């Protein structure tokens, strides 16, 4: 009896001395352990320590029963444990769990959910907590600057981690970082080590069964003696939020002032298996949530990629100097509501034109899409666009700049509220009819703009696409030449390089198709066709009744010969026009439409004729026969022009010289 009492007392003494000296323990499963549990924590029959069960907004704690004497100059310690997190809804974390060193083993006043069972609203972040924790957090709380919903952090007195890292490990074999999913249902091993000499905390994570990675996930220089009291409790805390999850500890070992003994993994209790019932859960819950996750993750990525793709534009080094003239595709996309059909102003052979309002400046613009597949010549082309953008004239539509995309070029112009001239000439009653005074003003305006391009700019600018649909009307119905998509530039005194023949049929000077060389006089030719268009209210080439083509120049010549010019003039004009002026414009048009460039006046001369400063040369109408139809059918053209032109040339030049 006495012996027994003595032995018992000795045992007590022994246990007490152990607690005060270098504590060391190992749990390979928790069957029969005397851990102090609270909240929903429990030890399952197979020895699993379950910190939380599948109820939401609950917490659970498990502490080693005796306090650990860390001493005032906190001793080194090392601990390792195996844990697993099984969320009720796959991929949605409960809240998380933590290894904790606490001055008390009663954390019942702490709160569940984001407080992880460690703190409550009033003491979170306070130095008086004296709590050191390593969190395994599966919910992202922005309030506590969480990295994501799958991170490991070192927390001192606060839910805001002093240091944290995405869950994972540095694989020694692969020499790379491997991600781990804390909520993967899979067991993982953790090492928490503190070196009192270096004052460094190291956290290492790895899949269970893998040897401890050499490089820790987290290493944080910190003197724990600032936080820890002499005597502290060590254990685990966990909580669930709106979604429940089970947080399990399978095994645990600890050693003060030394390396924690290794856990015998073969002796660890098994985690609950996903049974057949759970397979139906897979179908019912996991699949839909996987789909939800897919939607949540992939859709933003998809949207992002689409945005990237949608707004993808080309920007090369050489464009830097054009900065002010370069628009971002995103802005243009925004300006036009995504190139909405409702914003479509027009569409033609060379592209579509949209109305837009630029995001910041609120400037109204017209955006023309020009398809240009070849990269070749783009640099020069853009340079020309920018040069044109620097031009200012009251009869030119301001070209603000451009934007480049793959196979596409966007030109940004000043928006002209009254639209293009062709709408007034051909749209029937949609637009008000223009009287002669208005039309003549437009013709003179366009001529002034063209003269500026040809002779008054720093470089010679050939527009190459003069026609009614490219003449826009400003608020005062002034004609403004727009659409410089085909324009080319070259130095005064030189010639344009040979280019692809571009333009619109009926406006193309015959020599263009032969030589491919644009010149101011090819523009003059097109201007002639344009003037006829404005006076007659007809297109330069129209389909005839027999499937043939009616060429306006020929028609005008015909009427002139027969003395019936009145009949070719736009019927809308008849009542009011001063015939002399109209006749002058018609004759000037014919002069500009001369098949040979030498037969055409320059824009300077055209201006003089239009302003009335210089009378037109007398054209010998009877001998004129342009045969423009032949011009359009090229093979017949060359011989015809050759035989005809000398005659015509002499007649004009002699007339002119006579004055
Ligand atoms: C969770 O644990 C608590 C406390 O042990 C218990 O009352 C509750 O019924 C458990 N819930 C479930 C779903 O197991
Ligand atoms: C929650 O736990 C209880 C008791 O362990 C179990 O009967 C129930 O099926 C669990 N519910 C879910 C959704 O896992
Ligand atoms: C918060 O926790 C501390 C320490 O456990 C406790 O003293 C305090 O009363 C708690 N406050 C609230 C509001 O629960
Ligand atoms: C880190 O820990 C110290 C404890 O001394 C604390 O005062 C500080 O606020 C923590 N820093 C962050 C970023 O949480
Ligand atoms: C604390 O302990 C470390 C290592 O044991 C030692 O290097 C250091 O000097 C000690 N500091 C104090 C203040 O005792
Ligand atoms: C830690 O261990 C070393 C030797 O391994 C010993 O000298 C030292 O006193 C120990 N410190 C404490 C606080 O037990």
What does this molecule look like?
It is built from 14 helices and 29 strands. The chain has 659 residues and is α+β, with helices and mostly antiparallel strands. The protein has three domains: 20-262, Jelly Rolls (Sandwich), CATH 2.60.120.200; 317-414, Phosphorylase Kinase, domain 1; 421-651, Transferase(Phosphotransferase), domain 1 (Orthogonal Bundle). A hairpin with a 5-residue loop joins strand 3 (42-43) and strand 4 (49-52). It starts with a helix and ends with a helix. Bound molecules: 2-acetamido-2-deoxy-beta-D-glucopyranose (NAG) (6 copies). The site of one 2-acetamido-2-deoxy-beta-D-glucopyranose has 5 residues, from loops.
Main sheet specs: 8 strands, antiparallel
Number of domain modules: 3
Q: Report the principal-axis shape.
A: rod-shaped
Number of strands: 29
The top level CATH class name of the largest domain: Mainly Beta
CATH architecture term of the largest domain: Sandwich
C-alpha-based Rg, rounded: 44 Å
The SS-based structural class is alpha+beta
CATH topology value of the largest domain:
Jelly Rolls
Unreliable runs: 1-20, 631-659
Q: How many distinct helices?
A: 14
Residue fraction in strands: 15-25%
Helix content: 25-40%
Q: Determine the N-to-C terminus distance.
A: 151 Å
Residue-averaged pLDDT, rounded?
82
Ligand inventory: 2-acetamido-2-deoxy-beta-D-glucopyranose
Describe the protein's topology.
Blueprint: H1 2-20, E1 24-28, E2 36-39, E3 42-43, E4 49-52, E5 59-63, E6 68-69, E7 77-87, E8 95-102, E9 132-137, E10 151-156, E11 163-166, E12 168-171, E13 176-179, E14 188-195, E15 200-207, E16 218-221, E17 231-240, E18 245-256, H2 276-310, H3 329-335, E19 344-348, E20 351-357, E21 364-371, H4 378-389, E22 399-405, E23 408-414, H5 421-426, H6 436-456, E24 460-462, E25 471-473, E26 479-481, E27 488-490, H7 510-515, H8 520-536, E28 541-543, E29 549-551, H9 552-561, H10 565-568, H11 579-592, H12 603-611, H13 628-632, H14 634-657
Antiparallel strand pairs: 1-18, 2-5, 3-4, 4-18, 5-17, 6-17, 7-14, 7-18, 8-9, 8-17, 9-10, 10-11, 12-13, 14-15, 15-16, 19-20, 20-21, 21-23, 22-23, 24-27, 25-26, 28-29
Helix pairs in contact: 6-8, 6-12, 8-11
The structure holds 2-acetamido-2-deoxy-beta-D-glucopyranose (6 copies).
One 2-acetamido-2-deoxy-beta-D-glucopyranose binds at residues 40, 42, 53-55.
